[in-house]
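Quick one, T. Sequence first:
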Amino acid sequence: PLSNGKVMVGGLFSSFNGTAKSGICRLNKNGSIDATFGGSGISSGHRVYFIHPISNTKYLIAGTFTSYNGVAKNRIVKVNSNGSIDNSFNPGIGANGDIYMITAQTDGKFILVGSFTSYNGVARNRIARINANGSLDASFDPGTGANSQVFVAKVQTDGKILIGGNFT
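C-alpha coordinates:
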Protein backbone atom coordinates (compact mmCIF):
# COMPACT_ATOMS: atom_id res chain seq x y z
CA PRO A 1 0.00 0.00 0.00
CA LEU A 2 1.10 3.54 -0.77
CA SER A 3 0.34 6.63 1.28
CA ASN A 4 -1.90 7.95 -1.53
CA GLY A 5 -4.19 4.90 -1.22
CA LYS A 6 -2.90 3.14 -4.33
CA VAL A 7 -1.32 -0.30 -4.15
CA MET A 8 1.75 -1.67 -5.93
CA VAL A 9 1.46 -5.34 -6.91
CA GLY A 10 4.40 -7.53 -7.86
CA GLY A 11 4.89 -11.20 -8.51
CA LEU A 12 5.06 -13.82 -11.24
CA PHE A 13 2.30 -12.93 -13.71
CA SER A 14 1.94 -11.86 -17.34
CA SER A 15 -1.45 -10.20 -16.99
CA PHE A 16 -3.52 -8.65 -14.26
CA ASN A 17 -7.32 -8.64 -14.48
CA GLY A 18 -7.06 -9.40 -18.21
CA THR A 19 -4.58 -6.60 -18.98
CA ALA A 20 -1.02 -7.41 -20.10
CA LYS A 21 1.22 -6.59 -17.14
CA SER A 22 4.48 -8.47 -16.65
CA GLY A 23 5.30 -8.90 -12.97
CA ILE A 24 4.29 -5.45 -11.77
CA CYS A 25 1.37 -3.04 -11.81
CA ARG A 26 -0.18 -0.34 -9.69
CA LEU A 27 -3.81 -0.36 -8.61
CA ASN A 28 -6.13 2.53 -7.84
CA LYS A 29 -7.97 2.71 -4.51
CA ASN A 30 -10.93 0.84 -6.03
CA GLY A 31 -8.73 -2.05 -7.23
CA SER A 32 -8.73 -1.10 -10.91
CA ILE A 33 -5.42 -0.95 -12.80
CA ASP A 34 -3.80 2.49 -12.68
CA ALA A 35 -3.24 3.22 -16.38
CA THR A 36 -0.78 6.01 -15.53
CA PHE A 37 1.80 3.36 -14.46
CA GLY A 38 2.86 1.91 -17.79
CA GLY A 39 5.56 0.01 -19.58
CA SER A 40 6.08 -3.62 -20.45
CA GLY A 41 7.29 -4.56 -16.97
CA ILE A 42 9.91 -7.15 -16.12
CA SER A 43 11.42 -9.90 -18.25
CA SER A 44 8.93 -12.65 -19.03
CA GLY A 45 8.91 -15.67 -16.73
CA HIS A 46 10.51 -13.79 -13.85
CA ARG A 47 9.08 -12.36 -10.67
CA VAL A 48 9.09 -9.27 -8.52
CA TYR A 49 9.77 -10.18 -4.90
CA PHE A 50 9.90 -6.75 -3.34
CA ILE A 51 8.73 -3.20 -4.05
CA HIS A 52 10.12 -0.48 -1.82
CA PRO A 53 8.26 2.84 -2.16
CA ILE A 54 10.70 5.72 -1.79
CA SER A 55 7.81 8.15 -2.06
CA ASN A 56 4.56 8.21 -4.03
CA THR A 57 6.72 9.04 -7.04
CA LYS A 58 9.63 6.54 -6.92
CA TYR A 59 9.95 2.81 -6.26
CA LEU A 60 12.83 0.37 -5.92
CA ILE A 61 11.86 -2.97 -7.42
CA ALA A 62 13.76 -6.21 -6.80
CA GLY A 63 13.36 -9.83 -7.81
CA THR A 64 14.53 -12.44 -10.32
CA PHE A 65 14.22 -10.33 -13.49
CA THR A 66 17.02 -9.44 -15.89
CA SER A 67 15.28 -6.60 -17.71
CA TYR A 68 12.68 -3.92 -17.08
CA ASN A 69 10.77 -2.27 -19.93
CA GLY A 70 13.19 -4.02 -22.30
CA VAL A 71 16.33 -2.52 -20.68
CA ALA A 72 18.90 -4.79 -19.01
CA LYS A 73 18.41 -4.45 -15.26
CA ASN A 74 19.71 -7.35 -13.22
CA ARG A 75 17.29 -7.89 -10.38
CA ILE A 76 16.99 -4.26 -9.25
CA VAL A 77 15.60 -1.10 -10.81
CA LYS A 78 14.31 2.25 -9.63
CA VAL A 79 11.23 3.53 -11.42
CA ASN A 80 9.31 6.79 -11.56
CA SER A 81 5.62 7.19 -10.77
CA ASN A 82 4.69 6.54 -14.41
CA GLY A 83 6.66 3.25 -14.51
CA SER A 84 9.60 4.62 -16.50
CA ILE A 85 13.16 3.86 -15.40
CA ASP A 86 14.81 6.43 -13.15
CA ASN A 87 18.25 6.69 -14.75
CA SER A 88 19.71 8.53 -11.74
CA PHE A 89 19.84 5.06 -10.10
CA ASN A 90 22.65 3.03 -11.64
CA PRO A 91 23.34 -0.43 -10.17
CA GLY A 92 25.90 -1.22 -12.89
CA ILE A 93 25.47 -4.89 -13.76
CA GLY A 94 23.34 -5.36 -10.63
CA ALA A 95 23.09 -8.59 -8.68
CA ASN A 96 24.08 -11.98 -10.11
CA GLY A 97 21.25 -13.74 -8.24
CA ASP A 98 17.82 -13.02 -6.86
CA ILE A 99 17.13 -10.11 -4.52
CA TYR A 100 14.36 -10.99 -2.06
CA MET A 101 14.12 -7.87 0.07
CA ILE A 102 15.20 -4.23 0.28
CA THR A 103 15.43 -2.48 3.64
CA ALA A 104 15.99 1.26 3.96
CA GLN A 105 18.39 2.81 6.42
CA THR A 106 17.85 6.27 7.90
CA ASP A 107 20.86 7.63 5.97
CA GLY A 108 19.23 6.94 2.57
CA LYS A 109 21.19 3.75 1.91
CA PHE A 110 19.56 0.36 1.32
CA ILE A 111 20.30 -3.17 2.49
CA LEU A 112 19.72 -5.87 -0.15
CA VAL A 113 19.38 -9.56 0.71
CA GLY A 114 18.81 -12.61 -1.43
CA SER A 115 20.61 -15.47 -3.16
CA PHE A 116 23.16 -13.32 -5.04
CA THR A 117 26.92 -13.70 -4.53
CA SER A 118 27.99 -10.43 -6.16
CA TYR A 119 26.68 -6.93 -6.78
CA ASN A 120 28.03 -5.01 -9.76
CA GLY A 121 30.82 -7.58 -10.01
CA VAL A 122 31.97 -7.25 -6.37
CA ALA A 123 31.67 -10.33 -4.12
CA ARG A 124 28.83 -9.87 -1.63
CA ASN A 125 27.40 -13.16 -0.41
CA ARG A 126 23.67 -12.63 -0.10
CA ILE A 127 23.82 -9.24 1.64
CA ALA A 128 24.95 -5.86 0.33
CA ARG A 129 24.44 -2.21 1.08
CA ILE A 130 23.93 0.25 -1.74
CA ASN A 131 23.93 4.01 -1.91
CA ALA A 132 20.84 5.98 -2.94
CA ASN A 133 22.22 6.17 -6.51
CA GLY A 134 22.43 2.35 -6.82
CA SER A 135 26.20 2.03 -6.42
CA LEU A 136 27.65 -0.49 -4.00
CA ASP A 137 28.60 0.97 -0.62
CA ALA A 138 32.12 -0.45 -0.28
CA SER A 139 32.31 0.69 3.36
CA PHE A 140 29.84 -2.09 4.23
CA ASP A 141 31.79 -5.33 3.95
CA PRO A 142 29.98 -8.43 5.23
CA GLY A 143 33.14 -10.53 4.90
CA THR A 144 32.23 -13.98 3.64
CA GLY A 145 28.53 -13.14 4.11
CA ALA A 146 25.89 -15.81 4.47
CA ASN A 147 26.42 -19.35 3.16
CA SER A 148 22.87 -19.67 1.83
CA GLN A 149 19.81 -17.55 1.05
CA VAL A 150 18.90 -14.52 3.13
CA PHE A 151 15.18 -13.78 2.93
CA VAL A 152 14.66 -10.89 5.34
CA ALA A 153 16.56 -7.97 6.83
CA LYS A 154 15.57 -5.38 9.39
CA VAL A 155 17.53 -2.32 10.48
CA GLN A 156 17.17 -1.73 14.22
CA THR A 157 16.93 1.75 15.74
CA ASP A 158 20.58 1.42 16.84
CA GLY A 159 21.62 0.85 13.20
CA LYS A 160 22.41 -2.85 13.61
CA ILE A 161 21.02 -5.18 10.95
CA LEU A 162 19.14 -8.40 11.67
CA ILE A 163 18.89 -10.99 8.88
CA GLY A 164 17.07 -14.29 8.55
CA GLY A 165 17.16 -17.11 6.04
CA ASN A 166 18.48 -20.57 5.19
CA PHE A 167 22.09 -19.87 6.17
CA THR A 168 23.98 -21.57 8.98
